[in-house]
Amino acid sequence: MALLGMINWMYRWYRPTFHSGPEEIARTFAELFLNGYTPPSGA
Questions:
Q1: Do residues 28 and 19 touch, judged by C-beta distance below 8 A?
Q2: Is residue 22 classed as helix, strand or coil in its secondary structure?
Q3: Please, are residues 25 and 13 in contact by the beta-carbon 8 Å criterion?
Q4: Cα–Cα distance for residue pair 31/17, rounded to 1 Å
Q5: Exposed/middle/buried for 26, CB within 10 Å: 0-12, 13-18, 19+?
Q6: pLDDT in tens, 9-33
């Protein structure tokens, strides 16, 4: 459900005037989804 919610709300995140392109947003979404609950390495 979280992944589908992130994808469905992408129009709220992406703006052509932002410095981040679609690839950067997709990478960020993937990192959040795959590692969102993982503690930092140093913790």
A1: no
A2: helix
A3: yes
A4: 23
A5: middle
A6: 777 767 777 777 778 878 888 888 8
